Amino acid sequence: MKLKVAIFSIAAVTASIASAQSSADSVRDQLAGMGYSNIEIARSGDTYTVEAYRSGQKRELTYNALTGEILNDRSYREPSDNRVARNNDESNDSSSNDESNDSSSNDEGDDD
Protein backbone atom coordinates (compact mmCIF):
# COMPACT_ATOMS: atom_id res chain seq x y z
CA MET A 1 0.00 0.00 0.00
CA LYS A 2 2.81 2.42 0.88
CA LEU A 3 4.46 1.68 -2.45
CA LYS A 4 1.26 2.63 -4.31
CA VAL A 5 1.03 5.90 -2.38
CA ALA A 6 4.69 6.69 -3.13
CA ILE A 7 4.24 5.93 -6.83
CA PHE A 8 1.08 8.06 -6.97
CA SER A 9 2.89 10.94 -5.23
CA ILE A 10 5.81 10.78 -7.65
CA ALA A 11 3.43 10.67 -10.62
CA ALA A 12 1.49 13.67 -9.30
CA VAL A 13 4.67 15.73 -8.80
CA THR A 14 5.98 14.77 -12.24
CA ALA A 15 2.67 15.72 -13.87
CA SER A 16 2.70 19.03 -11.99
CA ILE A 17 6.22 19.83 -13.19
CA ALA A 18 5.38 18.88 -16.78
CA SER A 19 2.21 20.96 -16.66
CA ALA A 20 4.07 23.97 -15.28
CA GLN A 21 6.75 23.67 -17.96
CA SER A 22 4.19 23.42 -20.74
CA SER A 23 2.43 26.42 -19.19
CA ALA A 24 5.65 28.46 -19.35
CA ASP A 25 6.21 27.36 -22.95
CA SER A 26 2.63 28.31 -23.79
CA VAL A 27 3.06 31.79 -22.30
CA ARG A 28 6.34 32.24 -24.20
CA ASP A 29 4.68 31.16 -27.46
CA GLN A 30 1.69 33.45 -26.91
CA LEU A 31 3.86 36.49 -26.19
CA ALA A 32 6.14 35.76 -29.16
CA GLY A 33 3.04 35.47 -31.35
CA MET A 34 1.97 38.91 -30.15
CA GLY A 35 5.32 40.35 -31.27
CA TYR A 36 7.16 40.35 -27.93
CA SER A 37 10.87 39.54 -27.80
CA ASN A 38 13.51 39.07 -25.11
CA ILE A 39 11.02 36.95 -23.18
CA GLU A 40 12.42 35.93 -19.82
CA ILE A 41 10.59 33.52 -17.53
CA ALA A 42 11.72 32.79 -13.97
CA ARG A 43 10.11 30.45 -11.48
CA SER A 44 10.11 30.92 -7.73
CA GLY A 45 8.12 28.30 -5.87
CA ASP A 46 4.66 28.15 -7.43
CA THR A 47 4.97 31.52 -9.16
CA TYR A 48 6.28 32.43 -12.60
CA THR A 49 7.50 35.94 -13.36
CA VAL A 50 7.65 36.92 -17.02
CA GLU A 51 9.31 39.93 -18.66
CA ALA A 52 8.87 40.67 -22.35
CA TYR A 53 9.48 43.63 -24.66
CA ARG A 54 7.70 45.01 -27.73
CA SER A 55 8.15 48.39 -29.44
CA GLY A 56 9.52 50.13 -26.36
CA GLN A 57 6.91 48.56 -24.07
CA LYS A 58 7.90 46.30 -21.20
CA ARG A 59 5.34 43.78 -20.00
CA GLU A 60 5.62 42.07 -16.63
CA LEU A 61 3.40 39.13 -15.79
CA THR A 62 3.20 37.09 -12.62
CA TYR A 63 1.11 33.95 -12.57
CA ASN A 64 0.53 30.85 -10.50
CA ALA A 65 2.45 27.94 -12.02
CA LEU A 66 -0.06 25.37 -10.77
CA THR A 67 -3.38 27.01 -11.61
CA GLY A 68 -2.35 29.40 -14.40
CA GLU A 69 -4.11 32.25 -12.58
CA ILE A 70 -2.63 35.64 -13.53
CA LEU A 71 -1.64 37.41 -10.33
CA ASN A 72 -0.24 40.57 -11.92
CA ASP A 73 -0.07 41.90 -15.48
CA ARG A 74 1.34 45.32 -16.14
CA SER A 75 2.70 47.00 -19.19
CA TYR A 76 4.56 50.28 -19.34
CA ARG A 77 6.80 52.33 -21.57
CA GLU A 78 10.40 51.40 -20.96
CA PRO A 79 12.76 54.36 -20.34
CA SER A 80 14.76 55.11 -23.49
CA ASP A 81 18.08 54.63 -21.64
CA ASN A 82 17.12 51.04 -20.85
CA ARG A 83 16.04 50.37 -24.45
CA VAL A 84 19.31 51.74 -25.83
CA ALA A 85 21.38 49.68 -23.36
CA ARG A 86 19.40 46.51 -24.07
CA ASN A 87 19.63 47.03 -27.84
CA ASN A 88 23.38 47.65 -27.57
CA ASP A 89 23.81 44.44 -25.58
CA GLU A 90 21.95 42.51 -28.27
CA SER A 91 24.03 43.98 -31.10
CA ASN A 92 27.28 43.37 -29.20
CA ASP A 93 26.35 39.73 -28.75
CA SER A 94 25.77 39.24 -32.47
CA SER A 95 28.85 41.23 -33.55
CA SER A 96 31.15 39.27 -31.23
CA ASN A 97 30.03 36.10 -33.01
CA ASP A 98 30.84 37.66 -36.38
CA GLU A 99 34.31 38.71 -35.20
CA SER A 100 35.16 35.21 -34.02
CA ASN A 101 34.21 33.82 -37.43
CA ASP A 102 36.33 36.44 -39.25
CA SER A 103 39.46 35.83 -37.16
CA SER A 104 39.40 32.08 -37.80
CA SER A 105 39.35 32.62 -41.57
CA ASN A 106 42.37 34.99 -41.37
CA ASP A 107 44.56 32.38 -39.64
CA GLU A 108 44.57 30.13 -42.70
CA GLY A 109 46.68 32.52 -44.79
CA ASP A 110 49.54 32.86 -42.24
CA ASP A 111 51.36 29.60 -43.13
CA ASP A 112 54.27 31.35 -45.01
The number of E-state strands comes to 4
Helix content: 40-55%
Report the CATH C-level class: Alpha Beta
Largest sheet: 4 strands, antiparallel
Name the CATH architecture: Roll
Radius of gyration: 22 Å
In what order do the strands lie side by side in the largest sheet? 1-2-3-4
The termini sit apart by: 77 Å
Region (Disordered): 72-112
Protein name: PepSY domain-containing protein
Biased composition (Acidic residues): 99-112
Biased composition (Basic and acidic residues): 72-89
Can you give keywords for this protein?
globular, disordered N terminus, Nuclear Transport Factor 2, Chain: A, alpha+beta, 112 residues, 53% helix
Could you explain the architecture of this structure?
With 112 residues, this protein is α+β, with helices and mostly antiparallel strands. The protein has one domain: Nuclear Transport Factor 2, Chain: A (Roll). Helix content is 53%, strand content 29%. The chain contains 2 helices and 4 strands. The chain has a 4-stranded antiparallel β-sheet with strand order 1-2-3-4, covered by helices on one side. The longest helix is centred in the first third of the chain and has 32 residues. The N and C termini lie far apart (77 Å). 5% of the residues are buried.
Give the gist of this structure.
With 112 residues, the protein is an alpha+beta fold. The protein is 53% helix and 29% strand.
Write the layout of secondary structure elements.
Layout: H1 2-33, E1 37-44, E2 47-54, E3 57-64, E4 70-77, H2 80-106
Antiparallel strand pairs: 1-2, 2-3, 3-4
